[in-house]
Amino acid sequence: MTGSKIRRSMPLFPIGPVMQLTDLTARQIRYYEEHQLISPARTDGNRRMFSLNDIDKLLEIKDLIDQGVNIAGIKQLFSISNQGPETLSKNKKTERRLSNDEIRRHLRKEIVQAGRFNLPSMNQVNMNRFFH
Length: 132
Known about the structure:
The protein is mostly helical. Helix content is about 55%, strand content about 10%. The chain has two domains: about 1-55, Multidrug-efflux Transporter Regulator, Chain: A, Domain 2 (Orthogonal Bundle); about 65-130, no CATH class. It has helices at about 5-10, 15-20, 25-35, 50-65, 70-80, 100-115, 125, and strands at about 40, 50, 85-90, 95-100. The strands form two sheets. It has a two-stranded antiparallel sheet. It is globular, with a radius of gyration of 17 Å. Mean pLDDT is about 75; it is low at about 85-95 and about 120-125. GO terms for molecular function: DNA binding; DNA-binding transcription factor activity.
C-alpha cells in the first residue's frame, strides 16, 4: 500500500465530525454499519473511528439513497466494485477493463433511461428488488 492509501484508511474521526461532514445522522451511520456497508474501526472503549475511505463510502451511500437505490441495491453495487474491474467484451478481438466508476455510471444510466422511457431495462427482473 502506498502512503496515500495508508493515510486514507487510518481511522481518525469519531462519529460527530463524520455526521457533520456527511450530513448523516448517527442512526443512519450505525444502520449502514449494521448492514455491513461500512466497517469503522473501534477503540479500546468500543468507540467508532472513521477513516477518509469510510467517509467517502458514506457519501457514496448517501448519493445512491438520494437516487432511489435501496440498501440491497447498494450492497449489490458495492459487491461488484469489490470484485475488481469487470471485463466487457466489445468484440472477440478487443477487451476493455471497466473501472468501478464506469460500472456504476453504466448501471445508473441504464436504470435512469429505462425509467425515463418506461421501458424494461435488460436487468429489470434482477434490479427491481433493489429500488423503493
